[in-house]
Structures are given as structure tokens and as C-alpha cells.
């Protein structure tokens, strides 16, 4: 699987930077996970091909680009954009975003080819086929109902936590997967913001270190994601000090082959 974390900010020269305000991953240029920067950072190929968007939860940094992505493609969509998410997340989108006040309710609209947006509810622990991928949501421990995902294709399996604090059931599920290819795990704040991390249900390097003791796949590479941009350097420094050899920082924009 080709896996890319899309950029969401620019540096002083106008090029994309490593600071990650928004979250969107694109797999094989055709399936998105979260849509924070999807409307702004998708390549032309991704814009032509991405018609399935899987959501971890409805926090703004994960859905900000979603209404604008649909808007941009509205007139040319020959099949609807399909949003795969829990019933809870779908309810929040319809109530708080696609509510005609914040943005149009695209699920009620059509272009000359047909409907432009539809929803496919995901159920925790139940596998779905989404394009060429097999996707299984697993509940995680965030401030709002959220899921991570086990994503498989042709012998590769990637696990992504999305936003989360400490978990137990999740690790039991992940530890039962054979030949896991890659784990992507969040670490939002540096250790000195422990209180903020606790109240917002995110990880710090110290807490992630304890969390990784529960992870049993001894050969599997681990990448940290979702590092808050304001504290990026400090958090990366502290992550390097926890001494977990297989841990790297997922580079924004780079295309990984997992
Ligand atoms: Zn969140």
C-alpha cells in the first residue's frame, strides 16, 4: 500500500512544511482516511480518484477539508463521494457541518450525473471492503467517539490509531494480527503538557512509551503521527529519548510503501 500523510502548512518559501495542523492520509492515491487538508493538498490524480473517505472522528482538524473537497468536485462527480464512518460521526457531520448554515447538505443534492455525497456507516470490529482495501474499525479512547483502523491489502496490514489516549482492548486486537506491516500511533503533546493531553485524550512521549509496552509485534515498524505543530520539535526530541528503537516520525508528504 502506498501511504501518504498530506501536508497542511507552508514554509517561508511557499513549499509544504512538516507542521501538521490537519490530518488526511491517502492510500494508493484513491482512498482517503480523514479529510483535514484533503481539499487543499490532494494531487490532481488524487482529486480525480479519491471517491471514498474514511473518517476516524469528526473533530475539525480531521474533517475541515471535507466540505470543500465535495464542493470543488461537485459538477464533475460521476459517482458520489462516499463517506465511511460510524453512525455517530455521520450524525455530527449532518447536524453540525452539512446543515445549510455552515455548508450545504450535499447528501440532498445531485449534479447532472446523480447524487454527490452518500454515507456508509461503519460498525466497530466489522470488516468492510472499501475499494481495494479491507478496513476494520476498532474503537479508541478519545474525547469523542473515535475509531482507529486495521487496513489490509495483498498481504500488507497497517494499523492506524487516529487520535487517542491510553487503550487496552485496542492493543489486544492489534496483538492478535499476524504479520502486521506498520503501526501508526498518535503522540500529540510533549511531556510538560501532560495535563492538556489528559483532558483532551491525547498521548505524550512518556505515556506513549508505557503504551508501547502493550504492543507485542516485535518486528513491526512504528511511526508517530498527529504531533501538534507548536510543539513539534520538543515532542520529537522527547520521542527520541524514550529509547524505542523501531519508532520513527511519519514524514508529511512522503509516499511510504507499507
Ligand atoms: Zn480529535
Which helices and strands occur, and which strands form pairs?
Layout: E1 2-5, E2 25-27, E3 31-33, H1 38-41, H2 44-49, E4 52-54, H3 60-63, H4 66-73, E5 81-85, H5 87-97, E6 110-111, E7 114-115, E8 117-121, E9 128-130, E10 133-139, E11 147-153, E12 156-160, H6 169-175, E13 182-186, H7 194-200, H8 205-212, E14 222-225, H9 232-241, E15 247-249, E16 255-257
Parallel strand pairs: 3-4, 4-5, 5-8, 12-13, 13-14, 14-15
Antiparallel strand pairs: 1-2, 1-16, 2-3, 6-7, 9-10, 10-11, 11-12
Zinc ion binds at residues 57, 59, 142, 163.
Structure description:
- The protein has 258 residues and is an alpha/beta fold.
- It has a single domain, classed as 4-Layer Sandwich (Metallo-beta-lactamase, Chain A), CATH 3.60.15.
- The protein contains nine helices and 16 strands.
- The protein has helices at 38-41, 44-49, 60-63, 66-73, 87-97, 169-175, 194-200, 205-212, 232-241, and strands at 2-5, 25-27, 31-33, 52-54, 81-85, 110-111, 114-115, 117-121, 128-130, 133-139, 147-153, 156-160, 182-186, 222-225, 247-249, 255-257.
- It has a seven-stranded mixed sheet.
- The radius of gyration is 18 Å and the shape is globular.
- The N and C termini lie close together (5 Å).
- The model has no long low-confidence stretch (mean pLDDT 97).
- Zinc ion (ZN) binds at residues 57, 59, 142, 163.
Amino acid at each position: 500500500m502506498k501511504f501518504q500523510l498530506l501536508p497542511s502548512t507552508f514554509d517561508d518559501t511557499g513549499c509544504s512544511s512538516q507542521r501538521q495542523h490537519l490530518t488526511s492520509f491517502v492510500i494508493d492515491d484513491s482512498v482517503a482516511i480523514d479529510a483535514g487538508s484533503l481539499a487543499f493538498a490532494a494531487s490532481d490524480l488524487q482529486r480525480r480518484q479519491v471517491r471514498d473517505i474514511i473518517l476516524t472522528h469528526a473533530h475539525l482538524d480531521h474533517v475541515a477539508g471535507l466540505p470543500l473537497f465535495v464542493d470543488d468536485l461537485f459538477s464533475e462527480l460521476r459517482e458520489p463521494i462516499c463517506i465511511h464512518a460510524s453512525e455517530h460521526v455521520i450524525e455530527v457531520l449532518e447536524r453540525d457541518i452539512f446543515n445549510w448554515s455552515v455548508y450545504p447538505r450535499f447528501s440532498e443534492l445531485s449534479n447532472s450525473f446523480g447524487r454527490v455525497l452518500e454515507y456508509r456507516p461503519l460498525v466497530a470490529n466489522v470488516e468492510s471492503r472499501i475499494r481495494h482495501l479491507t478496513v476494520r474499525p476498532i474503537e479508541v479512547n478519545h474525547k469523542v467517539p473515535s475509531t482507529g483502523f486495521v487496513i489490509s491489502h495483498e498481504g500488507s496490514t497497517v494499523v492506524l490509531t487516529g487520535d487517542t489516549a491510553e487503550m487496552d482492548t485496542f492493543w489486544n486486537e492489534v496483538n492478535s494480527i499476524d504479520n502486521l506491516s506498520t503501526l501508526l500511533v498518535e503522540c500529540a503533546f510533549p511531556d510538560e503538557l501532560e495535563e492538556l493531553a489528559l483532558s483532551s485524550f491525547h498521548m505524550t512521549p512518556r505515556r506513549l512509551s508505557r503504551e508501547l509496552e502493550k504492543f507485542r509485534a516485535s518486528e513491526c515498524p512504528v511511526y508517530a503521527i498527529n504531533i501538534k505543530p507548536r510543539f513539534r520539535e520538543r515532542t520529537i526530541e522527547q520521542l527520541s529519548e524514550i529509547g524505542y528503537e523501531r519508532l520513527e516520525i511519519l514524514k508529511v508528504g512522503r509516499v511510504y510503501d507499507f
